[in-house]
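STRUCTURE:
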């Protein structure tokens, strides 16, 4: 099927982007920069809303917006254009918490966007297997939910610009498929695993299938990873487990994800993008929406 043949669901894409940005901004509040981990954990367990008046979103949202814009403009992942938009987002504000690899790569793409083809595979000797391609992709899955094959293909195309390693790409495919399935009312972890390329991300998803939802989230994070290693396979299984645990309640989903700590802005961005694709952000407390940095 040609990429232009899949009718986009723009409303679902927007809901997912709002949820992603909310998760990112909420999750960032629990970073050690703002709260030492014991205090963060206690406050999360007490469901105490972070008191700061402005919750800034981070690189997860900055790059998700860039991807969203390219899809709005072109209808599909136009890779060289996306490389440029990623680089422009980085250039506009480098203090959004980008990882080491992106600090190396994105300035080079600003000068020469098409060079992602040679530069991305050279990162970390074999391409990045980090969670950066997964953290930005849920709105793409929501947008193209009517064709899961298209979702997987477009997710991979946007991933390889920065994350050339197969596991970096697999994480993005998994999250995009999860968001698409959520919008379709078909989201389960085993279905996501069934559409994820073989490897450590899929292995993690299959382990997540076997973690009962009665498990406390921090224990699930112990079993599945919480993103602390910033790898895709350390991040995606837990973030999707909490999304599957709370598919109709964004607030509950984000609290559960936050309990895992680790790379908590990114795990919450992933969960928020998947659950938010269905719920939107209207169900969360007004205070959360007032505090989250606006999207545009
Ligand atoms: Mg971030």
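SEQUENCE:
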């Amino acid at each position: 099927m040609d990429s232009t043949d899949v009718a986009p669901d723009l409303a679902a894409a927007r809901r997912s982007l709002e949820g992603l940005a909310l998760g990112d901004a909420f999750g960032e509040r629990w970073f050690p920069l703002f709260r030492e981990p014991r205090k963060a954990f206690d406050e999360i367990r007490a469901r105490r809303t972070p008191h700061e008046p402005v919750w800034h979103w981070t690189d997860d949202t900055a790059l998700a917006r860039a991807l969203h814009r390219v899809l709005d403009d072109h209808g599909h992942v136009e890779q060289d254009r996306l490389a440029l938009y990623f680089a422009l987002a980085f250039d506009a504000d480098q203090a959004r918490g980008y990882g080491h690899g992106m600090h190396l790569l994105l300035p080079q793409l600003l000068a020469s966007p098409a060079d992602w083809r040679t530069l991305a595979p050279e990162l970390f000797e074999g391409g990045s297997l980090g969670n950066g391609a997964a953290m930005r992709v849920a709105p793409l899955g929501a947008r193209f939910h009517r064709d899961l094959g298209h979702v997987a293909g477009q997710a991979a195309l946007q991933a390889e610009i920065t994350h050339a390693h197969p596991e970096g790409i697999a994480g993005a495919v998994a999250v995009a498929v999860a968001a698409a399935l959520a919008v379709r009312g078909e989201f389960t972890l085993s279905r996501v695993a069934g559409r994820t390329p073989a490897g450590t991300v899929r292995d993690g998803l299959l382990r997540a299938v076997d973690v009962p939802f009665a498990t406390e989230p921090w224990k699930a994070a112990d079993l599945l990873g919480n993103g602390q290693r910033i790898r895709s396979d350390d991040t995606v299984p837990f973030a999707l487990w909490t999304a599957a645990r709370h598919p109709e309640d964004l607030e509950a989903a984000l609290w559960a994800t936050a309990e895992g700590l680790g790379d908590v802005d990114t795990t919450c961005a992933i969960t928020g993008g998947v659950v938010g694709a269905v719920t939107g952000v209207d169900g969360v407390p007004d205070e959360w929406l007032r505090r989250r940095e606006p999207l545009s």
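REMARK: The mean pLDDT is 96.
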